[in-house]
């Protein structure tokens, strides 16, 4: 973590009130490290010398759905720019846009969710992976940890800004195996040469927000950039499936076959589909 850049959540703030200061984790539990916070008449003193007064700390303690960071002052890890974006203090954090979480958090944490998606394509040392929709980058980071070189694409500059804040996303920018491209993957993919990638992890926003990323034209581009035998994982989720009998995965599978993919099948635990070029 960079010097003078610390994170605090409702849980941590409550602990500091109960203990009157003390040692707490300040990197959203990315590590087990703790830092000493002193309580004085002015408030709570952080390691960089920032003093957080009791009223502000109490407001943090009451805000269970947000992440705050300390950097010469107190800031919420949130952006209001047309939509409302914020980090949510799951472990690791997820991102929420207008109240909709971008990771699965029921019965699985965002880290395990990313691992299941990457497991579906099983990248190997020295392979090249396309991660179509970066978000906070957990999928790209997981693939890179397995020895792959990853190109990851993110359209939304506000999501990129939160990824740069989030300590769990640090390897996106420091690991050396990941190239981050800002742009619309629907257009960016057209710039890649034929047969460039060993695997693709396609984890798009929900269909209602990015229907073009579920279409045959885009699938044909993914087919083109994959090497023969290349693997695709496509996260679909199960919107409406439980209550309205919809099967979005079935339509996805049909369009993938029409685009030239073979051995298309469901991966139920990851709520998606895998296919081969």
Description:
- With 277 residues, the protein is α+β, with helices and mostly antiparallel strands.
- It has 2 domains: 6-76, no CATH class; 110-276, Vaccinia Virus protein VP39 (Rossmann fold, 3-Layer(aba) Sandwich).
- The protein is built from 10 helices and 18 strands.
- The strands form 4 sheets. It has a 7-stranded mixed sheet with strand order 14-13-12-15-16-18-17, sandwiched between helices.
- α1 (10-19) crosses α2 (54-62) and α3 packs across α4 (138-145).
- The chain is elongated, with a radius of gyration of 21 Å.
- The two termini are 41 Å apart.
- The mean pLDDT is 94.
Give the biggest beta sheet: 7 strands, mixed
Number of helical elements: 10
Write down the CATH class of the largest domain: Alpha Beta
Average residue-wise pLDDT? 94
Backbone shape: elongated
Gyration radius, to the nearest Å? 21 Å
Number of beta-strand segments: 18
Structural class: alpha+beta
In the CATH hierarchy, the third-tier topology of the largest domain is known as Rossmann fold
Number of domains: 2
């Amino acid at each position: 973590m960079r010097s003078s850049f610390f994170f605090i959540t409702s849980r941590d703030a409550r602990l500091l009130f109960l203990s009157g200061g003390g040692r707490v984790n300040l990197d959203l539990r990315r590590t087990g490290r703790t830092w000493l916070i002193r309580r004085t008449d002015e408030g709570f003193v952080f390691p960089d010398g920032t003093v957080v007064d009791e009223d502000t700390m109490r407001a943090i303690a009451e805000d269970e759905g947000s992440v705050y960071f300390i950097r010469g002052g107190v800031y919420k890890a949130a952006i209001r720019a047309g939509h409302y974006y914020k980090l949510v203090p799951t472990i690791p954090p997820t991102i929420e846009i207008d109240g909709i979480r971008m990771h699965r958090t029921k019965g699985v944490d965002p880290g395990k969710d990313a691992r299941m998606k990457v497991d579906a394509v099983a990248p190997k040392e020295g392979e090249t992976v396309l991660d179509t929709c970066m978000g906070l980058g957990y999928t790209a980071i997981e693939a890179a940890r397995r020895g792959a070189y990853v190109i990851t694409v993110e359209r939304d500059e506000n999501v990129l800004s939160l990824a740069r804040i989030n300590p769990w996303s640090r390897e996106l920018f420091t690991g050396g195996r990941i190239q981050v491209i800002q742009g619309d993957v629907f257009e960016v993919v057209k710039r890649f040469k034929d047969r460039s990638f060993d695997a693709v992890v396609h984890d798009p926003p929900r269909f209602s927000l990015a229907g073009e990323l579920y279409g045959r034209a885009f699938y044909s581009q993914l087919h083109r950039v994959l090497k023969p035998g290349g693997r695709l994982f496509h996260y679909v989720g199960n919107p409406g499936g439980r209550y309205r009998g919809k099967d979005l995965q079935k339509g996805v599978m049909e369009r993938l076959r029409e685009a030239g993919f073979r051995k298309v099948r469901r991966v139920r635990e990851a709520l998606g589909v895998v296919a081969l070029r």
